[in-house]
Amino acid sequence: MTAVGIDAIEIWTGNLKLDLPGTFAPEKGEDPEKYTKGLGLNASSFPDSYEDIVTMGANAAHRLMERKGLEPDDIGRIDVATESSFDNSKPVSTYVAGCLEDVYDSDFHHANKGERKFACIAGTQSLDDAYNWIRAGRNRGRGALVIATDTALYARGDAGEATQGAGAIAMYIDEDPDLIELSAEQGYGSADETDFLKPNQQFPSVDGKRSVQVYLARMREALEDYESVAGDVHPEDITFAPFHTPFPGMVRKAALLAYRHIIRDTSIEDDLAGEIGRQPRPEAFDTDDDYREALREYMDELKETDRYQEWYAEMIDPTLSISREVGNWYTGSVHVARASALKSALEDGRDLTGETLLIGSYGSGAQAEIHTETVQDGWEDEIEALNVDEQLAARYDLTWADYEDVHDAHNHEMDVDVEEFTTPDEEFVFDGWGRMGERQYRYVE
Ligand code: CAA
After folding, report:
1. Which among 120, 139, 228, 397 is placed 20 to 30 Å from 42, CA to CA?
2. In terms of pTM, does the model score above 0.90?
3. Which residue is catalytic, options 10, 51, 193, 244?
């Protein structure tokens, strides 16, 4: 069967940066290490006043098309995944297509366009849609453009404010992909949950502590479901495990649970038994509380073992490097984690061709999905072409007063104009409102 997967990616970060230990922590009266060590974040990327989900998505897509030599006729489908949409009817993909049509001679009139919503997991669901469309043979030789774009802003003073971020990732899905092949097998953990939602409001209502528990519960279910179709996952079969990363500290919790799960009944559990004992099994306890208490103790000890820490350093830590500098990009976050891992392998001079990634996506509300991916032999050229380090370094570093202003400028309930902090250069920008309340854009040469 012909491989189907991600042929290329491009990342576009918001042009501003909020320094969490240096600027945010002192204003909040918090220890900077709460952000750097606790949440695992150094900075948030933030949109300038002329940026939004359309500009960032279109800029990522434009860069990808230019680099891969793609024309609109090569693209039969454009799906945008976002939880920051501003229109309940007209999808963001139409705005993105409109932007791109301004810079290409041809158009996307024969492409199917849509917008996908299920919190942060919508980016992965859009990949599924593209994969299924190609597998069904309905693509007429064309590929699909999937764009995950968000301005992940929280209300001022919300605990989530420290985890904000803004950026987009564009992915081209095709047959015989250069970057990764998607597995047919998937596992799901899905339940009606009220942990994070935006009932017709811009900033989310969040039960932060509960959202962490829901993430872990759904992810565990998804892993078990994945194993029920694909067989048990063993640590040695996986090279990296990129997870949805609302903040790296969340992944630290998920990774420990995942490790305990995948070493159960393996020689690794046996090797560790001398040091920390075997994992507690529910049948050995009279009550569920006793079992859970024993489990907590086992996990506390497991976390401190050299074996676990080495595994974490090799398989998880490399997935977090970009996230630490940009915060949460909601729908794009797990795809940024994949890019971080591949980028770190490239920097280390490793050959990943044929190796396996275990991807853990998550969306509040809530659903987790697990699948695997096989790295393809064009991966090095694809990752080498990314300019994410340059983009991160070029961001304007906001003062606290700047941050307050630009947060207000992006607050739909406030009518404030803020001068731009950066000068757009070869990119799409927001250019005001049209007669029906639509957003308008232009390309700045
Ligand atoms: N030095 C080192 N560590 C410190 C510290 C210090 N001085 N001070 C605090 N910490 C640690 C804490 O111990 C904690 O770590 P552990 O959880 O491992 O114990 C960590 O820093 C964070 O501290 P708090 O729990 O006190 O932080 P908080 O309550 O202010 O905020 C949060 C945490 C509730 C998760 C908040 O960031 C939030 O609401 N975030 C938005 C919701 C979210 O991202 N949820 C994640 C799951 S849902 C999801 O994934 C979907 C999505 O994208 C939103």
Report:
1. 120
2. yes
3. 244
